[in-house]
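ZP: hey, is the oxa(dethia)-CoA complex queued? I don't see it on the tracker
AM: it wasn't, my bad. submitting now with these inputs:
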Amino acid sequence: MQHTGIAVVGSGSAVPPTTLTNAHLCQMVDTSEEWIGERTGIHQRHLNDGRSSLTELATKAALEAITMAKLQPMDIDLIILATSTADDMFGSASSIQFALGATRAVAFDLTAACSGFIFGLVTCAQFLQTGTYGTALLIGGDVLSRWVDWSDRRTCILFGDGAGAVVIQSHPVNHLLGFELHSDGSQNKSLSLKYGGTDHELLEGIAVSQGNYKPIDMNGQEVYRFAVRRVPEVLEKTLLRANLTVDDVDWLLLHQANQRIMVAVAERLHIPIHKVISNVARYGNTSAASIPIALDEFVREGKIKTGDVIATSGFGAGLTWGSAIFRWGT
Ligand code: UT7
């Protein structure tokens, strides 16, 4: 089997136009702008209304990434949609493939909650590095607003909707410098979006369960503790695997969940704050979309330059966490 490297060659992002500010939230639940700002760093989030879909957001982000990569949809061999909130329970990647006209591509969904983009990046890399496919499109997208309990002040202040995408290609030099992925199902109850059905008897003695999903349930303190412990640890391991030190890192790009988590992780790793990529203030926690949206913003603003080393880490429900360190561009 042929083994090559990979390069991340394009990015894109899309968020719905409607914004919900902290002031709006004060009209909905017992909270204050100061509390939300100080505890999370979030000031507003974008919300998808019923007229739009995850597929539309994801397709928009994907087209931007394909354009930046100077490719056509027909050049794509593999599409992975990292999401926990597909429009279709059977998966939305195929609808994106159709909307893009990427008819050559095989497309499927991958679910790893807020770690989805990192898990997806590593999965794409495996297909590319074995030589199975040449060009992959990875989209991280979520519309968690569908599953938030908007009367629960502990969770409704955090989440926003959006999609981000990258194009990844096989490359003679491997720009994926290292990665680590982890899961711990024993802590699943700390953060969940569970199916909740009621029994429906079809015939005597034969019943099925039918229903819907319950809203997001989270123990914020536990998830916070998990993140500030596991994220520095996984990044340190990945740096070691990649034969790098923190001084080699140009950018620290964490899942955008809470500004305090980003600062705590940077402090623990002794990474200066000016290297921390953050846009959580304007988007909130967009789950699988948060890393690629922030990446795209910094690339388009010219801050991230070709060859820059980006240390990324995602963490969240599962519980899952992981890290990938890569060089931007070719
Ligand atoms: O993608 C991964 C997903 N999740 C995360 O990364 C979340 C990680 N956790 C966090 O970001 C933080 O734990 C939160 C922002 C969710 C909460 O911040 P905290 O500093 O851990 O607050 P807390 O849960 O310890 O609550 C402190 C107090 C409590 O009141 P008492 O019991 O001390 O009287 C809460 O009831 O703040 C209260 N509280 C609020 N007050 C005003 C909780 N939510 C709110 C609110 N507004 N929205």
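AM: back. Residues 178-185+217-327 form a domain with the Peroxisomal Thiolase; Chain A, domain 1 fold (CATH 3.40.47.10).
ZP: great, adding it to the tracker
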